[in-house]
Specification:
Order of helices and strands: HEHHHEEEEEEHHHHHHHHHHHHHHHHH
Radius of gyration: 23 Å
Shape: globular
Low-confidence stretches: 241-247
Largest sheet: 5 strands, antiparallel
Mean pLDDT: 93
Number of strands: 7
Strand content: 5-15%
Structural class: alpha+beta
Number of helices: 21
Oligomer: single chain
Strand order of the largest sheet: 1-5-3-7-2
Length: 521
């Protein structure tokens, strides 16, 4: 069992939520780091970048992620049963490359149907050598994880440095890029991704206080958004634990500031309105108009509406139903923070004529905890929706809800979807469906991928008779990630039937790290 001394503190979790990163250090022998670095160097130059196979190709890497420091950090952010995702990569930054890694600020391609502000995913950037700024470490822009659009020079740039074993635990959606290597030395960095399997029921870090530790260093302040993530990670979504600083602002001046020409003033005013809660309900229409504002302002307006009680919830539901698609998506984030009050309206939106609105309603329902039998039944019914976009959101929502309620029926529905999607691979339809919406070409079977991940999140040993056949079929999917999730789910279930399937699959799939084109036998 992991000793609590390795868990993160309230201050570190607050920084992760607000800035999107925490720098840590793995105390491992220099000899191990040098050995791994030499092996990776040989692989890159003799065979090319192995991509997802970097771990089986250089299995010593696994030791980096088995230390108490790494386990404690990942447990703190993603819960104790987090999963190492099958996508990983070795980033090689050569001296003199004018565009390392493409040279552009970017977010990593995401794996869900929508990006979640709450940490269902995280990454680790791991350096196997002493790293200094002149060696081109990955640059990160604190506080930008919640933005779909790049904020440009409004953000501060951080270049994490340190001794071999330095790692950066990163919010999956943080904007980052490789920086120029002007050192004359090759720079290596391992990027590994990790997935949360359960919505939190209690804090999984060394939690002492109820309020966040607010610091500067972000392009904008998002008190209500940050509070939503903080309370969700504490297992208490919707609780009021972060109070406005100083005297409560009068509503009338705030109403004027919401109309300011200065976006920073508008964003701050929207945040303050949310801090006032239902007493500021009269400002809901103005906040609703602000969902069409610049993204940082719109985020604050959406999350503020989620705190204004029925007036705010009704405005968000109206905007999800009637607004542009961008406004509807922003409203969905606000509705997840409105919690149970939003459920009736979201259930009604599952009948909307536009597939995007139905899909967003399914996403928001999956984010609201605790869930109910009525919600589970409605999402299962969505699996018959004519839109694969709606079906995928419903599949993921059912997985995010966890074991309860109706766990057996949920697993049965997910297993049926998984098996159906594998059959569709045979006629080629699974590879082309919904590419125009998700633009995730690296996922060949999107419904099967999502169903397999949701089964990993929901299935228990008692469900094996229901899910075993679909998981066995999924091991032969054309999609590498469907196969990986099915493999992990069977490993998690660990019944005799599951182990028998795994052993039969493993025998021909076994990887030998010593077999290369230079050493074939």
């Amino acid at each position: 069992m992991l000793d609590s001394q390795w868990l993160l503190t309230d201050e570190q979790i607050s920084q992760f939520i607000m800035k999107g990163y925490v720098v840590l250090h793995n105390e491992l022998p220099d000899r191990l780091h040098a050995e791994v670095r030499d092996k990776i160097n040989a692989v890159l130059h003799e065979e090319g970048n192995p991509g997802n196979n970097i771990l089986p190709r250089v299995p010593e890497i696994q030791q980096f992620f088995e230390t108490p420091v790494v386990k404690g950090a990942l447990t703190s952010v993603l819960g104790p049963d987090y999963y190492m995702h099958p996508h990983r990569h070795c980033h090689y930054n050569q001296p003199g490359d004018p565009l390392p890694g493409g040279g552009q600020w970017h977010k990593d391609s995401y794996w869900s149907s929508m990006r979640s502000h709450r940490p269902w995913w995280a990454m680790i950037f791991y350096y196997m050598q002493d790293i200094s700024e002149d060696m081109g470490p990955t640059a990160i822009m604190p506080g930008t994880a919640y933005y779909d659009k790049f904020v440009g020079d409004q953000g501060e740039t951080i270049l994490p440095t340190g001794k071999a074993g330095t790692m950066v635990l990163v919010h999956f959606d943080l904007w980052h890029k490789a920086s120029l290597n002007v050192s004359g030395l090759d720079r290596y960095m391992l990027k590994f991704q990790f997935v949360r399997l359960r919505a939190p029921e209690s804090p999984s870090w060394n939690h002492l206080g109820t309020e966040m530790h607010l610091t500067g260093g972000t392009p904008y302040v998002h008190l209500n958004l940050w509070r939503d993530v903080w309370n969700w990670m504490r297992g208490e979504p919707g609780q009021e634990n972060l109070s406005a600083t100083g005297e409560e602002a009068a509503i009338e001046p705030l109403a004027e500031e919401l109309k300011s020409e200065d976006e920073v003033i508008r964003a701050k005013a929207a945040d303050q309105v949310g801090m006032l809660g239902e007493k500021a309900a009269s400002l809901a229409p103005e906040l609703g108009r602000m969902l069409n504002d610049k993204e940082p302002v719109a985020l604050n307006a959406g999350y503020a509406l989620g705190r204004l009680g029925s007036a705010g919830t009704d405005e968000l539901l109206r905007l999800m139903s009637e607004g542009t698609r961008q406004i509807a998506e922003r409203a969905a984030y606000g509705l997840q923070s409105a919690d149970a009050e939003a459920v009736p309206g979201l259930l009604a939106l599952l009948e909307h004529t536009d597939e995007k609105r139905r899909a967003l309603a399914a996403f928001a329902l999956g984010a609201i905890v605790p869930s109910t039998r009525e919600v589970a039944a409605a999402l299962i019914a969505c699996l018959q929706d004519p839109s694969d976009w709606v079906r995928r959101n419903a599949i993921e929502a059912l997985g995010m809800m966890g074991r309860e309620p109706e766990a057996g029926e949920v697993c049965r529905a997910l297993a049926n979807i998984l098996e159906e999607s594998i059959l569709q691979e045979g006629d080629g339809t699974a590879e082309t469906r919904n590419n125009d919406i998700t633009q995730q070409s690296y996922i060949l079977n999107k419904l099967g991928y999502t169903a397999a991940l949701s089964l990993l999140r929901t299935a228990s040993p008692e469900d094996v008779p229901i899910v075993i056949h679909s998981l066995e079929q999924a091991l032969h999917s054309k999609d590498r990630y469907v196969r990986a999730y099915a493999f992990e789910t069977l490993t998690h279930l660990r019944t005799p039937e599951a182990m028998d399937v795994l052993i039969r699959y493993y025998r021909p799939a076994r990887w030998c790290p010593d077999t290369t084109k230079a050493s074939t036998f």
